Structure formats: C-alpha cells, structure tokens
Amino acid sequence: MPRDADRAPTEADYLAAYDAEAFERPSVAVDVALISASEGALRVLLVERSEHPQRGRWALPGGFVAPNESLDEAAERVLAVKARLTGVFLEQLYTFGDPTRDPRTRVISVAYYALVDAATWDRAARDTEKLRVARLVVPWEGETGGPVEARDPDDRPLALAFDHEQILGMAVRRLRGKLDYAPIGFQLLPPQFTLRRLQDVHETILGRPLNKDSFRRRMLASGNLEATGEREECVGHRPAERYRIARRSAV
Amino acid sequence: MPRDADRAPTEADYLAAYDAEAFERPSVAVDVALISASEGALRVLLVERSEHPQRGRWALPGGFVAPNESLDEAAERVLAVKARLTGVFLEQLYTFGDPTRDPRTRVISVAYYALVDAATWDRAARDTEKLRVARLVVPWEGETGGPVEARDPDDRPLALAFDHEQILGMAVRRLRGKLDYAPIGFQLLPPQFTLRRLQDVHETILGRPLNKDSFRRRMLASGNLEATGEREECVGHRPAERYRIARRSAV
DNA sequence: TGAATAGTGTCTATAAGACAATATCCC
DNA sequence: GGGATATTGTCTTATAGACACTATTCA
User: Fold this and answer.
1) Which CATH number describes the domain made up of A185-245?
2) How many whole angstroms separate alpha carbon B160 and alpha carbon B169?
C-alpha cells in the first residue's frame, strides 16, 4: 500500500471539489437482489429487459429513487411492485457508480439484497415471460468475490444486464461473510424449520458441507433459536423437532 | 420479521416505478471519514463549514461526484484536495439517502472511510481554523452501533453537521467488524511497526484490552506479517522486532 | 544493577470435528 | 422388524486466555 502524501492539488481540483453543485446530476436507482435457496442452490429473481439498452438481457428488479423517499423505501417499493412482496428482510449492499455502467446516462445504483423463503417465493414470483427465478452458480470459493452466473431451469446461462453480475457477486460474498455472525440463515426459511433445513441453507450459501454436530451446537448455543415442541410428520424416519427464531434474538 | 406477501401494488406504484426517469435528480456526494489512531483513541479529520446550512458545524470532508468520475475516484479526489493525501487505504462504507438529511436539496451521500498512520496524518492535516483532527468517543460496546461523538483537543464536543455522526458511527462499527478477519490494522501504522504498536491499534479500534499472548500468536499465524530483522532503538527496555506487511498477504 | 518491556513455554478452558450409540417415526 | 434420520454422549484436536519465566536494552 503506497502512501504518497503531499501531491499538490491543482486549481482544477479545487474547482471540481467546490463547484460540484453546478455539475449535471446523475440519476440514482436502487437494484434489489431478491434471493432464496432451494434444492441446494441460491436463487434470484430476474426481469427481462423489454427496452433498450440491453434489451433481452436479464436484470435485477430496480427503479429510480423518488424525490421524497429514502433509499430503503425505494428498495421496499421495488420489491412491492415487481415481486409483490412486503416485510421481507432487506439490507443495503453496495453502491455502484462507474460512469459507464449504463450507456444511456450516468446512473448510480444503490444495490440491496433481500431474503425470502422458497414458499413465499413461489407465491410471489412464478416463472413468466418477463420474470424468472434463476439459479446462481458461484465460480469461486469462500469470500474470494467476483461475478456469479445466473442459469435458467434448463441450466442455460442467462445474459445479465449492466453490471448486475457484479452486484450478485457482491451479494453472495456479503451473505457468506455475514452468515457466521448475523442471524440471516432463518430469513431463507419458513417461520418454522428443522435444524437440518437450516444447515442445508447454510451449506447452500457457503457452497461447502458443514459438520452436523458442530452446526447443531453452535445454533442452539447462539440463543437465536427456540424449540416449538412440534415435530415433523410423515417423513419416513424419526421426525425432527421444529424451531423458530427466538423472540429475544441472541443475548 | 413479518412476511406479508401479496399486497396489490396500486397504479400509482407502477407509475412511480416506471416513470422515475422523469423525476428530479438528486445530487450525489461522497463524504470521507479519514481515520487514524493515536494515544489510545481514534481520530478523524473534520472541516468547519463556512457556509449555510449548518454553518459553524463540523463536517467530514466531502464533495459532489463529477459527471465522468467513479465514486472511488470522487473519494480519492476529496482526499487529495482536502487532506493532500493520495494512495491511502480507502473503502466504500454505506450510502445515506434520507430525503431530509440536507436541508438545501436532496443530497445522497456515498460515505467512504480511509485509514492513515498518525505520522502521515501530522504532515497532511495540521490543526487549523478550518481543519481539525478530532478525537472519537464511542458510547457503545462491541458492534452495537449508533452515533459517536467527536471531541476537540480540550475534550469539548464538536457539533457535527448533517448526519455525519451516524456516518462516523457506521465507520467505527465497520472497522470493529472487519478487524478480526481483514488486514486493516496495519493501515493505521507506519510501514514498519512492532507487535505492541499493532496491538495498541487493535485495542483502540475495539475499545477493549486484548490478551497479549493470544494476539501475538494470531498475528504471526495469520501470515500477514513479515519480520524485518530490525529492532527498535533507544527505548529504555528490550527493543522489539519490527514487522511489515507480508508481500503475499495471507495464504 | 535495576527498570521496563520483549519474547517463550506451559497449563487450562473452550469450541470444533469425528465417531459411536441410542431414539423415534413410517413403511 | 427394517430403513432412515434425529438426538445424545464421548473422545480428540485446535485455539484462546492465563500465568510464569527468561531475554535484552538503556539509565
């Protein structure tokens, strides 16, 4: 890491810094990676672009930020309008501002990610012409980072619009990083779930198998789970107990 | 976490989502928390506002994003112009977009944090009328989060402008969260340093004492450090070996 | 020589991984 | 009863915290 201090800023630098209010203003949008997990893979909702630019490519649902709404509210609105979902887990991810990321004009995108369980998913976003639930393929391990691929149900790659490949890569990296210390695994499951299903979700996010015993101990010790007393039924083997998120999450 | 699916979006929702290009565009700025550590406390560079709004209050150095620069470039420019620093560690933090955060007009701020060692600091930003190095007081433990206070050299609180108290709080929280798994502690130290100085930095960031033995073991095992063979001099006690960042950081 | 901190070695407590044994359901 | 997975218990291993001890420099 070089530390070249004391480069003398030019007059132009000063002008650029102080007169920026006169600059042309960029458009600001939010793009939401709505993520779920099923059958061992992460899934994401994509929208086919019907207009130029990038017509025919697949994009994250997004929209421009209205004058009187906060960024969080804009993201919630996008979810409500495009996926018909409200009240889901939603968190800001990163802001993408390369001047050339949108060929039309300068568009700065504040990316969000949202997590839902597969059941809610099925109600909200069936596969249609314009809307598709794509499977994510992560070509890197751990928290290396980098773009990820989206595949259709026949395992064909979907061409993503703009820099949405990067946004999805960042989302997966964030998920992997937060999973161990933040209570986010549950968000991909229905209100009640067995420990095995929770482990499935963790393994899907991390892209690697986990030790069953250690996983049980960690989860139960975390204080984030609460036994319901109920059990699975009709499963062809000993039924597992169902858990839910503890009211006082953590200690 | 409620999961109220299926609220039918109104026509107005659709229009808001799709006609947003016609919206008035917000201004987009970057604000940089330039952070250092010395004498057991985190320090941050603040600029006194000479204009309304919030005249007389202290703000993070910032500037509007120019049409042809990326967000990272804008943050680098702000550092070069206001602190005369280039090549320092710089990373995007979070984007603040409350519609009322700036009373003039809608300003969305992409916040960054930068890390420098105290020596570079002293060269770059002496205390002047307009520029001040403030001491940060963190009124919460661990990664709880929340606003932090800035104090002047006489320990008097400095009134911060806009939501910069929140931005600083987010910066401290991010630092605490990343410290254990990302190589960022070195960024607050000169190119060569002893393990004790590194521990000082970690304790300052975390706001709590660390176990000396365990800290040594972890740091040396991380593979991020490289012994220089040199030692301290004239220290009135056994001189410690100096280390630097390993060329191949981590494995 | 003594003050002060660097660096090493050992013991203990805690958490993760491995493995075995038992429990419980449906067929 | 047999298949299949849940759940519990024990053992081993890695890591963090605690503490004692030695090493080295300058005053």
Assistant:
1) 1.10.10.10
2) 12
